[in-house]
Amino acid sequence: MEKNKPSLRGRLAASEAFLSVVASLICIVIGLALGIVVLAIINPEHALGDGLWVIISSGLKSPRNMGTVLANAAPLIMTGLSVGFAFKTGLFNIGAAGQYTLGAFGALYCAIVLHLPWYLCLLAAMILGAVWGAIPGFFKAYLNINEVITAIMFNWIGLYLVNDIMYGKGKSPMYDLASTKTHSLRKAAPEAMIPSCGMSDLFGKLQSVTIAIFIAIFFAIVVYIVLGKTTFGYELKACGFNKNAAQYAGINEKRNIVLSMTIAGALAGVGAGLYYLSTVAEWNPQVSTALPAIGFNGISAALLACSNPIGTIFSSVFISYITVGGTKLSTQYYTKEIADVITALIIYLCAFSLLFKNKIRSALTGGKKRAAGLGKGGND
């Protein structure tokens, strides 16, 4: 029995989780190395001390900086889960930005206008995000229209629809003429704010640090269980792997496509609720002519995590950490957008994660295979 037991190298080579983690770490290391090169090209004298080191160390320099990282990581985890969930089921949810926008509207409307408690506002954000995600899913399932095209179109429809309602020619109950943004929840609807439960005290009295990060982690665990431990999750993934085989097995492919996009939209909508109900920022309907970047950053988080729900937690915190570090760069030497460049390099390398995984697997098992091949050749 012991002789047939696989070696440690064999078990590691067979572990998709291990291979994904190592491949992601390789992407990060190479991305940071290339980031140093970019920083050196821009300003070689300050590439390390005033460049990369500032980005890497800023989050740990003060509790408030780390609090900002967590406050921005919570919604990013949700959009990452949204994109990753769709990836797992064979769909590309590029509409997370639009679903996030509808979620923001649902949360803020229920908070500012209806004065509902935060958990009902979060539920409204989830429902509106789900509806906006279901539409591309319906077009994909029943009209065979590519979900990427439909989702992109509905991103912009959602953005301008929400802006028009929120602004309301300056007379909307959600719009604050004094700030040219939606009313601050701290003044207009404190009952709709996600509770801090002492989190703000841990991070330098930063009030935007709430239990949102724990809510996001909870959703990540739920998605992990649904996809990996339930029949429903297996059916969704089966449709993604091979829809013809899934149909042959009696799985309702059309229903699962709609459900997959609906769940993905709901996750993105919750992300917006976590962000705005934590009062990290207010929505500016007059100047928000660009889609929320966090919707597209979710693609980065999902890619870096290889669409693993638990991995998405860590990839989102990492991306948030790098982004916050980029805002601390001295404008005397670099622009703050340089952090986005470094993140983009890391994400670009994620496109090669499958190559890295195969190389690692080959390195762990290649010796045995080569030896076996030589043995067979000798016998012939």
Structural write-up:
73% of the residues lie in helices and 1% in strands. It is mainly α and 380 residues long. A two-stranded antiparallel ribbon has the order 1-2. Strand 1 and strand 2 form a beta hairpin. It is globular, with a radius of gyration of 23 Å.
Structure in a nutshell:
By secondary structure, the protein is mostly helical.
Radius of gyration: 23 Å
Taking pLDDT < 50 over at least 5 consecutive residues as the criterion, the unreliable ranges are none
Helix and strand composition category:
mainly alpha
Biggest sheet architecture: 2 strands, antiparallel
How many strand segments? 2
Q: Fraction of residues in helices?
A: over 70%
State the end-to-end CA separation: 30 Å
Q: Give the helices and strands as they follow along the chain.
A: HHHHHHHEEHHHHHHHHHH
Strand order of the largest sheet: 1-2
Mean pLDDT: 87
Give the count of helical stretches.
17
Anisotropy-based shape: globular
Fraction of residues in β-strands: under 5%
